[in-house]
Design goal:
With 171 residues, the protein is of the alpha+beta class. The protein is 29% helix and 34% strand. Keywords: Signal.
Length: 171
């Protein structure tokens, strides 16, 4: 009986080590509060986990996130300042790109963020765009929130955009 028990234990131990698996960590819950006249939408960015738009003005926003382990795997820094700079790299080669403001602050809901505000000119459509990028970090994830519109519409919705940024809830 002891030999049978020992054999069973060895077989189980061997099979566990032979079929070892890697655990990948998934998403965590977060929430965005939208002010009146804003709604959830699709189409602003195919990789976004949440997207929104103003009901009457052409102002949009979305959130993308990535696990800190994935960022480290790419040998990038995981602090919010560095990631704000990485995010700007996607845009700073656009025509007439202009960085307007950079700041770091705590939202009214208590989360630290770094924000980059910039504008750029789209020659093809003859439109000047205005964008805000906010980077947030939880223990396990980095979040990139982008809000944008034309210069004119963005100014009209700036108060609401500030509300959205200040009311994100992260774990």
């Amino acid at each position: 009986m002891k030999k049978l028990l020992l054999s069973t234990i060895l077989i189980v131990a061997f099979s566990i080590s032979t079929f070892a698996q890697t655990t990948l960590k998934g998403a965590e819950n977060y929430s965005i509060t939208l002010p009146q006249n804003w709604q959830r939408t699709l189409g602003a960015n195919a990789l976004a986990s949440a997207q929104w738009e103003h009901n009457t003005e052409e102002i949009y926003g979305y959130v993308m996130f990535e696990h800190v382990d994935e960022i480290e795997l790419a040998e990038l820094k995981t602090d919010i300042e560095s990631n704000a700079e990485y995010a700007l790299n996607d845009f700073n080669e656009l025509a007439q790109y202009k960085l307007l403001n950079s700041k770091k602050f705590k939202t009214t809901s208590g989360f630290e963020t770094t924000q980059r505000e910039f504008s750029y000119y789209d020659e093809e459509n003859d439109i000047k765009f205005h964008m805000l990028i906010n980077i947030f970090r939880s223990e396990s994830f980095l979040y990139k929130m982008i809000n944008f519109g034309t210069d004119e519409t963005f100014k009209k919705g700036k108060k609401d955009i500030d509300f959205i940024i200040n009311n994100i809830k992260l774990p």
